[in-house]
Write a structure and sequence with these properties.
Serine Threonine Protein Phosphatase 5, Tetratricopeptide repeat; mainly alpha; 189 residues; elongated; 2 domains
């Protein structure tokens, strides 16, 4: 019985931990470990809402980080840039915010433009140009029902929007919709 205990005690002495494939995971080199530490610090900063600081770290990782975290760093860098822009924006008027929303719309940043138009309407819901902007956005993104709702509201708030919409090329996707025609030319129906 003494021999059994001795063999049990000695059984674990020479064993090496293995992975499923039977191979050891390679130990990270000093630069790889530094890149991982930087990556974790950047993630923590991003979660704390410190987007500018996180952005600087992600930019550093993209320049000289390891390939394992390169793609994720690019994605998080884009997130930081977007959130940093949203935080740093301040407008003195709804018209200024509208101009910014139109510039976003013209560059294809539809979701950011939508956020800006909706922010205008959140502060004051009877702003005709914000409804008009959302109508244009919804026309461009193929959302006919929402386009008609916002355009109808914009026209109800300011009749001149009907005349403007008749010649606005941003509504070209709506031209074949009879409801759109009826909204713009009520005297014909």
């Amino acid at each position: 019985m003494v021999r059994i205990q001795e063999s049990r005690q000695g059984a674990g002495i020479g064993k090496v931990p293995r992975t499923i494939a039977g191979k050891m995971r390679p130990v990270a080199t000093q630069p790889q470990q530094q890149a991982l530490d930087t990556y974790q610090s950047a993630l923590k900063l991003m979660q704390e809402g410190k987007y500018e600081k996180a952005r600087a770290l992600f930019e550093k990782l993209i320049q000289d980080g390891s390939p394992e975290i390169l793609e994720r760093s690019r994605v998080y860098l884009a997130v930081c840039e977007r959130n940093a822009r949203n935080i740093s924006l301040s407008f003195t008027s709804s018209e200024e915010r509208y101009d910014y929303a139109i510039s976003l719309l013209n560059t294809g940043n539809y979701e950011d433009a939508r956020d800006q138009f909706e922010a205008i309407l959140k502060s004051k819901e009877d702003v005709d140009y914000a409804h008009y902007g959302l109508a244009v956005l919804n026309s461009m993104t193929g959302q006919a029902e929402e386009c008609l709702q916002h355009l109808s509201r914009a026209i109800a708030l300011r009749e001149h929007n009907r005349i403007h919409a008749r010649s606005d090329t941003d509504f070209q996707d709506m031209a074949d919709d009879p409801r759109f025609t009826e909204l713009l030319y009520p005297e014909i129906s």
